[in-house]
Specification:
Elements: H1 4-16, H2 19-26, H3 30-44, E1 49-50, E2 56-57, H4 59-83, E3 94-100, H5 102-120, E4 122-128, H6 135-139, E5 145-148, E6 157-171, H7 173-178, H8 188-193, E7 196-198, H9 205-214, E8 223-225, H10 229-237, E9 243-246, H11 247-254, E10 263-264, E11 271-280, H12 285-301
Parallel strand pairs: 3-4, 3-5, 7-8
Antiparallel strand pairs: 1-2, 5-11, 6-9, 6-10, 6-11
Helix pairs in contact: 1-2, 1-3, 1-4, 2-3, 5-12
Length: 306
């Protein structure tokens, strides 16, 4: 049997990134936190945390943290069930941690899960990352599910197909004119002379577009980095550069009067990104309800390949 105080100390250190911050969170001394972690490691016969400037969990520590978070969710669900009948608002709020790419969060994810969150008094703790990297947060035990491009289920997890997000290469009207070839159509050489607007340094959609449609493998071109969905699209709208925007966002823009359109630079060309919902194999009831809501939202908003 695990000691609850030791597990709480492990979770606090992992979440806060330091022993001192964990001690402050738990309202105990630094020595008490260190002793609890040391005792837990001795009982298990292996190191659970790597000490350094920022403390991180080992593989064994990550596995134990996943267990701790699963147990916490199940306990919260049990308490919610026991407290039913206490009147409106009697159920405690519950937090579910998930990792999502920004485009999904801003287009289909939040609208799809919002009714469930309100009805079940659930709170989201969202980790934003590129869709090619969100699974890292699930692997480390920091979240219970992630929207990812990784189709192979990680150990202890299930990977469920969600659908496809389709991205278009777009720019402002002034940029479209500047990158056209003399005889019409897109000049890739002129395009590469213009800056691209990229969400962050993990974003590979521009390179995927150039490889897929022009056979160019990671060519050099100037880049703006704009790690916010509204700022990213505004930079393109202002003519600062070209970028990859999903169909859902382009449709939403078209429905907003007065917003200048973002025009396709290579009409009909797209980059399709297939998404999956990876989640713990053993889910608490609240997490399972979230999984159902995510799948239903994806079925409604994403391209479904049959």
């Amino acid at each position: 049997m695990f000691d609850a105080r030791q597990l709480d100390a492990l979770a606090a250190v992992a979440e806060q990134g330091s022993f001192l911050a964990a001690a402050q969170t738990l309202n105990v001394t630094l020595a008490a936190v260190s002793l609890r972690i040391k005792s837990l490691e001795q009982a298990l016969g292996q190191r659970l945390l790597v000490r350094g400037k920022t403390v991180r969990a080992t593989a064994a520590g990550q596995a134990l943290l996943t267990h701790v978070r699963q147990v916490r969710l199940m306990e919260a669900d049990l308490l919610k069930g026991l407290n039913r009948g206490g009147g409106e608002g009697a159920d405690p709020w519950q937090t579910l941690s998930v990792a999502i790419n920004a485009d999904s969060m801003a287009s289909w994810f939040l609208p799809g899960v919002a009714p469930l969150l309100a009805a079940q008094r659930l709170l989201l703790d969202i980790v934003l990352d590129d869709q090619d990297h969100t699974h890292d947060a699930l692997k480390s035990g920091d979240v219970l599910g992630c929207v990812t491009t990784l189709s192979q289920a990680m150990r202890g997890c299930v990977a469920e197909p969600l659908g496809t997000m389709r991205y278009r290469c777009v720019g402002a009207a002034s940029l479209l004119e500047a990158v056209q070839a003399p005889g019409g159509g897109l000049s890739v050489h002129r395009l590469l002379a213009k800056p691209a607007v990229i969400f962050n340094r993990k974003d590979g959609l521009q390179d995927a577009f150039l490889l897929q449609h022009f056979g160019l493998k990671q060519p050099a071109y100037p880049r703006h980095f704009a790690p916010a969905v509204d700022g990213f699209e505004m930079a393109i709208e202002l003519g600062l550069g070209w970028g990859m925007v999903p169909d859902q966002h382009l449709t939403a823009r078209a429905a907003q009067p007065g917003r200048p359109p973002l025009l396709e630079l290579l009409p009909g060309a797209a980059v399709d990104v297939t998404l999956y919902w990876q989640h713990w194999e053993r889910e608490a009831p609240s997490a399972r309800r979230l999984t159902d809501a995510v799948k239903a939202a994806a079925n409604r908003y994403l391209i479904q390949v049959t």
